[in-house]
Amino acid sequence: MPEILIVEDDRPISDLIQMHLSIAGFISYQMYDAESAASFLSNKTVDLVLLDIMLPKMSGMELLEKILPKEIPAIFLTAKRELPDRIKGLKMGAEDYIVKPFEPIELITRIEVVLRRTGRKELKLVFEDLEINEDRREVIKAGKIIDLTLREYELLCMLVRCQRHALSRERLLDDVWGFDYPGGTRTVDMHIQRLRSKLDWHEKIRTIYKIGYRLEH
């Protein structure tokens, strides 16, 4: 299970990030200034660092210089949205640069992309007796491989990543089929019904009235 260090001095934001990382199946640690993070990393290896730029005592960019020799990938999380700031961060060696505020699903997706690109660990999503191996695009439930179409697979990944969160039909349609998909949200309903049938999740994928769907234990 990938381990992630959150370096963010705004504690409510840090707590929110940690909550979503936990939901997505990651282990995470929290530090609130760059010096504490540097000390933590002197004794502990993680798979990724989420790094704010504006930090007390030492900036995130200064901390990045200390992280790079350890070959730990880092993603900047910052309110600094100007293009020169983004270019500077990426040129310094950050793997990605995410501007606040951001959607949790965007953060999780970008983390997974970086982990896959840097080969830190095999990525798996787990929900009860179901396991999704994203490297092989393989879904196993109770030891049995489940045959899914590409859209069913991508829809399932979204539901598992955002378990216990209500996802609107519009959001599912945009994220799985794309913004320019000409069909309507009825497509989402049809694929949800197929997933319920194939996984025997008639009770677990809940319909949220006038909103969409939520995966529940």
Please describe the topology of this protein.
Elements: E1 3-7, H1 11-23, E2 27-31, H2 34-43, E3 48-52, H3 60-67, E4 74-78, H4 83-92, E5 96-99, H5 104-118, E6 124-127, E7 130-133, E8 138-141, E9 144-145, H6 150-161, E10 167-168, H7 169-177, H8 186-199, E11 205-208, E12 212-215
Parallel strand pairs: 1-2, 1-3, 3-4, 4-5
Antiparallel strand pairs: 6-7, 7-8, 8-9, 10-12, 11-12
Task: Give your account of this protein's structure.
A hairpin with a 2-residue loop joins β6 (124-127) and β7 (130-133). The chain is α/β, with parallel strands linked by helices and 217 residues long. It has helices spanning 11-23, 34-43, 60-67, 83-92, 104-118, 150-161, 169-177, 186-199; strands at residues 3-7, 27-31, 48-52, 74-78, 96-99, 124-127, 130-133, 138-141, 144-145, 167-168, 205-208, 212-215. Helix content is 42%, strand content 22%. α2 (34-43) packs parallel to α3 and α6 (150-161) crosses α8. The model has no long low-confidence stretch (mean pLDDT 88). The radius of gyration is 19 Å and the shape is elongated. The longest helix is centred in the middle third of the chain and has 15 residues, at 104-118.
In what range is the share of β-strand residues? 15-25%
- Provide the low-confidence segments as ranges: none
Strand tally is 12
Shape: elongated
What is the chain-wise order of helices and strands? EHEHEHEHEHEEEEHEHHEE
